[in-house]
Amino acid sequence: MRLLARSDVEQRLHSNGLDQIFIDPLLDRSQIGEVTVDLRLGYDFLVSVLTRKPFVSVDRSDHEFRSIESYFQSTRRELGEKFILYPNQTVITTSLEYVGLPNDVFADIFPRSSYARLSVQFNAMVQPGYRGCMPLEMANVGTNPVELVVGSRIAQCRLYEIEQPADYNNYPESRKYLGTTRPIVSRAPEDTDVAILAEVRRGRC
């Protein structure tokens, strides 16, 4: 495994082969740093909301189960508009950029230092061969609301080259967030092991 430096990323951006890294729109070449690529905040947000339910269930057989979407409210902002991230709030959004990774590159995504210092936290690992806007699952772990601007450089990603290519698209039935351009809530209820464990539990009762 090897961390891609600026020259590697630049070379792959200009490649027309299977090793190409695709980022669009890349509004400013300064987004490409020495060992990271900056990503901008996208337009669409899924905002967590309080409900009367005592907890979020991921087991469809649970009598407390309800659609995960019902715990979130959708909202949209235009480029340059502001979005407030409140303390103890989870917001699912995406990067402004649509990214295509080749089969030998994966990405780690985390906040730029300027936003981490404001208590904005998120972290994701994106598989080789991924296509879509990068997921940003944000939380404000501080005590003050934070104002974010759509289109601002909020995230950065490290790109790693692996020796053995691994195509994200080979197993579409297990890829729950493939090719997304808007934020998507957790699809944990679709995990087969959750249903199997529910059967095991019922067998013991």
UniProtKB/TrEMBL annotation:
Gene3D superfamilies, alphabetically? 2.70.40.10
Q: Which GO terms describe its biological process?
A: dUTP biosynthetic process; nucleobase-containing small molecule interconversion
**Pfam families of this UniProt entry?**
DCD
Keyword Signal assigned: no
Keywords, A to Z? Hydrolase, Nucleotide metabolism
InterPro entries, per database record? dCTP_deaminase (IPR011962), dUTPase-like_sf (IPR036157), dUTPase_trimeric (IPR033704)
The UniProt GO MF terms for this protein read: dCTP deaminase activity
Q: Which NCBIfam families does this chain map to?
A: dCTP_deam
The entry's protein name is dCTP deaminase
